[in-house]
Amino acid sequence: MKTQLKTQNDLKKLGTILSVWAHPDDESYTAAGIMAACIKNLQQVICVTATKGEAGVQDPKRWPPETLGEVRAHELQDALKALGIVKHHWLGYKDGRCERVRPLEAINRLLAYINLYKPDTILTFGPEGFTGHPDHAAVSRWVTATLEYAPYHPAVYHVVLDENLYDKHMKEVDKKLNVFYNIDKPPFADPAECEIDFELPPEILAQKRKALEAMPSQTEAIFKYMTPGALMKYLSIETFQKAA
Questions:
Q1: How far apart are CA 80 and CA 221, in angstroms?
Q2: What is the pTM of this model?
Q3: Which of the following CATH numbers is that of domain 10-242: 3.30.70.1150, 3.10.20.310, 3.40.50.10320, 3.40.50.300?
Q4: For 39-75, what is each residue's pLDDT tens digit?
Q5: Which of 116, 161, 164, 237 is the most buried (most CB within 10 A)?
């Protein structure tokens, strides 16, 4: 068994965190609890988002495609406020087109933030992109490539999923909403073999829920299909595996 970070106090070992994602809400589903806990530990947490998620249309009548990007930008602002995160940067790319971004362009942008903040830890997607979204996979590649140019190397952690947690609380919802839509199966990992397996304390879990509730354009559907108990169980554990 690996030495694990399982408690809020353990998370102090992550130091300064750079959290790098593709769309607004990626950070809140995957790492909101870790980030909120580290903020309470007085650690520095910086969030970087590649796109405004303007292609993620779920209800075109309520959130028309032409205005969704700005809606989601405001939603992210409210979500980060709920988590206590004050440092956020956009990369400014188009949703669904991250694969078309010149790699050196993205690398230079990320390298600037690494040089500015000198993070000890980077939280991001694994190479499969978690749900299989091409933008997610592109972000993962950018982070990996950027570290080849960085003057020092933060520890990189990729979000993974406990298969038992998925089977109990997400599998049926996934069938209805096709959450893991572009991948044969989610990136499952044995929590006992993961470096981070953080069960959120109640007050941190409440912050995570508040952050997700601040993003109704993306979260109303999943909130609708999951009972409150199942939803909170699913959200209550965040698991990350150290990149090779």
A1: 21
A2: 0.97
A3: 3.40.50.10320
A4: 999 999 999 999 999 999 999 999 999 999 999 999 9
A5: 161
